[in-house]
Amino acid sequence: MTSALILGPHLSGRGDSVKVCEELAERLRGEGWPIRTASHYAGGLARTADAVASVLRWRGSYRVAHVDVYSGRAFLWAEAVCLALEAVRKPFVLTLHGGALPELARRQPRRVRRLLGRAAAVTAPSSYLLGALGPAAGRAELIPNAIDLARYPFWLRARPAPRLIWLRAFHDLYNSVLAVETLARLKADFPQATLRMIGPDRGDGALLRCRTQTRRLSLEDAVAFEGPAPKLDVPARLAQGDIFLNTSSVDNTPVSVIEAMACGLCIVSTRVGGIPDLLEDGSDALLTSGDPAQMAAAVRRILSEPGLAERLSANARRKAEALDWSAVLPRWQELLTHAAEGRT
């Protein structure tokens, strides 16, 4: 089997949800591949130093590396890691993530092209990213984010209750306050409506602002802040709701939405980034703007329009079935093997 080093800028280890590249590493290990991962450090400098040190320290024990690429400071992290990989003459595969990456490519196109052009291969989990990056993405391949479908029990939400679920990190990009404001607009028609908010605090003040808005709207009894959920607990948490809110202002192909699809929740999401490539409005989700009144109106439709909830629930599960690891992992194995052998 091909030995590989899987590198992510913020792997879990602090109670965070498991990242896609971490699950990829575990899946490859399950197939007998020798795999190492880095880095679990929280701080940017420590994380970068650890990842670069891992590239150098383990250079004799892997043939190919996989590097996650995000925008912001994480892009600088990827640049440093790839320089180290080039120094030890190791081929690497880049995977593009995050709805903000196209904006970086617009502002600094040469920088983005320079990094992507040095890779043995480039992948992205959505056609949105491939299209938005354009020439910078080159020969990038679409490999979707995957889940272990067997972990996600499905039941059809034919008669949903106003039990709302929000599952994401508390970060300004994910606009958690919108979920609370949506609930506030539902209370007049559905006084029993509740909202469970699940996810780690990213420390930019988003969680505090969300709690403050909850108090200001007198929703303390209806909103539960549950903290991060270990990956294995996610299906049980999702089972406690019927309607899933995705409130992001910037997005790509979030695994949390795919997990909700697999469980059959009725999804209401903002229409941003790669979301319209993942979800079809009126078929497997309802897509709205970032306006709480519009999002609340979409929830009301699900709760009152005959046949709508059942259609959204069934179609979402059907689409999620195509994203099982059994279908996606062989593509990763082939790509990494070819990269290691210089055949991409």
Task: Give structural notes.
The protein is built from 14 helices and 12 strands. By secondary structure, the chain is an alpha/beta fold. It has 2 domains: 159 residues, 3-Layer(aba) Sandwich (Rossmann fold); 175 residues, Rossmann fold (3-Layer(aba) Sandwich), CATH 3.40.50.2000. The strands form 2 sheets. Strands 2-1-3-4-5-6 form a 6-stranded parallel beta sheet, sandwiched between helices. Helix 2 packs parallel to helix 3, helix 4 crosses helix 5 and helix 7 runs parallel beside helix 8. The mean pLDDT is 93.
User: Strand order of the main beta sheet, please?
Assistant: 2-1-3-4-5-6
Number of strands: 12
Q: Kindly provide the name of the CATH class of the largest domain.
A: Alpha Beta
CATH architecture of the largest domain: 3-Layer(aba) Sandwich
| CATH topology assignment of the largest domain | Rossmann fold
Tell me the major beta sheet.
Answer: 6 strands, parallel
Radius of gyration: 20 Å
User: How many domain units?
Assistant: 2
**Element pattern in H and E:** EHEHEHEHHEHEEHEHEHEHEHEHHH
Query: Looking at this structure, what is the CATH superfamily of the largest domain?
Result: Glycogen Phosphorylase B
Low-confidence stretches: none
What count of helical segments does DSSP give?
14
Shape: globular
Question: On the 0-100 scale, what is the average pLDDT?
Answer: 93
